[in-house]
Amino acid sequence: MSLDILVVPTYSTYTMAVVDASVYSVPPVSPEIDITVPGFNPVTIVFSPNQINLFNSTNLELTAVGVDTLPIPDGVYTLTYNTSTESVTKTIMRVDQLQEKFDNAFMKLDMMECDLAIKKQQKVALDSIYYFIQGSIAAANNCAVDTANTLYDQAARMLRNFSSDGCGCTGNNYTITAYYNC
Questions:
Q1: For the structural domain made of 5-94, what CATH number should be given?
Q2: Which among 6, 7, 46, 165 has most CB atoms closer than 10 A?
């Protein structure tokens, strides 16, 4: 038996999907997954082998049963898949809420803007924000939690600045130093 799990995109801030990518000679009986949501205590949930397992704020015990589900927070998650004989642990950076804000900022750009200099500066700013988001994900995948959080915070700060002042574009240059203020 070789245990493995994958977190796959749901493109929703309300759900997280974990796929069992394990190789079994015989599927385990009553496996569980421990999920630590940033800022919350770990929860242990029954895990279905050889399937996609969906999680939301209710089964992650962030909201009570019967209460409307809420968006699942961004941040570094620790997932441990346990069977009676082995376990596997993964660390991931969830960025769905930040990605949704990024997508909204991107979609607000007028792609047919006549001022090419402003458009280019906005693209450079968004490319930089995207780079920090991807760096955060890569750091979490490699268990560099502090780096993951630092890069996530920087991306969020840059995106807030971009969204609040229209990227600070003047059309005269391509500097984006305003977005790097810590």
A1: 2.60.40
A2: 7
